[in-house]
Fold:
Amino acid sequence: MANEWDDVVGMTEYDENLKRIEGIANSKGYRLNQNNERVKKVVGLMTMNYQEHGKYFCPCKQSDPLDEVNDVLCPCPALDEEVKKDGHCYCKLFFRVKKH
Structure:
């Protein structure tokens, strides 16, 4: 069964969003989830939000229906706090780099 985000994976908007997410991870010293399917899902759903609403709303924290006034954008304001506390963000997109 196909996923709803499969159609956007590989599109220019998806690729640009993935680069944006990778840039955020690099600038903060994080890494992306090593589960590529999880990354595709979260980035794909976020890209769909961008296509429909013009902003990168967090797909994991959004209300149903999406509330353009109150729903958070990715990266969310709690990103650093969540990674510090849990080792990853709520969406399990960004992870703390383990120190050896």
User: Anything to note?
Assistant: The CA atoms of residues 58 and 75 lie 7 Å apart. The chain has one domain: 12-96. Residues 12-96 form a domain with the Ferredoxin Thioredoxin Reductase fold (CATH 3.90.460.10).
